[in-house]
Specification:
By secondary structure, the chain is an all-beta fold. It has a domain at 3-42. It is built from no helices and three strands. The protein has strands at 3-8, 14-18, 39-42. It has a three-stranded antiparallel beta sheet, with no helix packed on it. Strand 1 and strand 2 (14-18) form a beta hairpin. The radius of gyration is 13 Å and the shape is globular. It binds zinc ion. Zinc ion binds at residues 8, 10-11, 13, 31, 33-34, 36.
């Protein structure tokens, strides 16, 4: 089953969610921190380039594989 990275728009918390079904809308993903259903899916595409940076996340600077597991 696919794991997706989500980021809470409410508090900015980033987390991984195991998505059971492809039909689950992002709005149904609940932030484990603030419990708000206001998360957006993070597209972890390695092709994203914003000018030579190796960071695959937009602006947070966090490692994509920070120890949540
Ligand atoms: Zn949150």
């Amino acid at each position: 089953m696919p794991m997706f990275d989500y980021r809470c728009r409410n508090c900015g918390h980033e987390f991984e969610e195991l998505v059971i079904s492809w039909t689950v809308p992002d709005a149904d993903i609940t932030c484990p921190d603030c419990k708000q259903n206001d998360s957006e899916k993070q597209i972890s595409a390695p092709m994203v380039s914003t000018g030579g940076s190796t960071s695959s996340l937009s602006s947070s600077g966090c490692s994509p594989s920070s120890g949540f597991s």
